[in-house]
Amino acid sequence: MTSSEFGAIIGPVVGDDGLARPPWAASDPLLREYYDTEWGMPVRDERGMFERVCLEGFQVGLSWRLILQKRDALREAFRGFDPDELVCMESVEHLLGDASLIRNRRKLEAVLTNARATVALRGEGTHLGEFVWSYQPDTTPAPRTMDEVPTRSRESEQLARDLKARGFTFVGPVTMYALMESTGIVDTHLVGSWRRGCSGVWGAEA
């Protein structure tokens, strides 16, 4: 989910359950469930981070709701986003006709490219989860409205450069900032949202 999808000057919206959420998660059941249970919670393991990198890449130019709708099918097609399994997959040709997936050849091929890069990263004595978390900033934003939510940062720009240098693709600075938001590295829950501070990485007043 990128902040630019809801760029208006809008603060938290209180739902029928009395809980305040950002406008993008206020009404749609699928997005609301995702926001309430997953978005912004820490993801530190290699496979989990690899899946998020891939899903954020699929989201480029599309809605996050569409990615959530297709996530289970993508998981099945890409062997649970296990990079060790995917380095053995030679082609995505058999996936191009599958309407349950995102049928964009470059994005599908990026999963295999990024799997190889993820495995190669271990040679540096780290894994993808640790590597991405090493770009955690010293402070996190405290947006009160959607227009105050950043779409990129100095850290996301550096992360994008460093991942690209290691062979990753579909990892631009805006996409990497969205990754940092979704995995708890920064907390861009709106001030006043019931989920602000939920990750335990940053306090509710951070």
TrEMBL record:
Keywords in alphabetical order: Metal-binding, Zinc
Binding site for Zn(2+): 189
Listed GO biological process terms: base-excision repair
Example of a GO MF term: metal ion binding
Pfam families per record: Adenine_glyco
PANTHER family: DNA-3-METHYLADENINE GLYCOSYLASE 1, DNA-3-METHYLADENINE GLYCOSYLASE I
Name of the protein in its database record: DNA-3-methyladenine glycosylase I
Organism annotation: Corynebacterium qintianiae
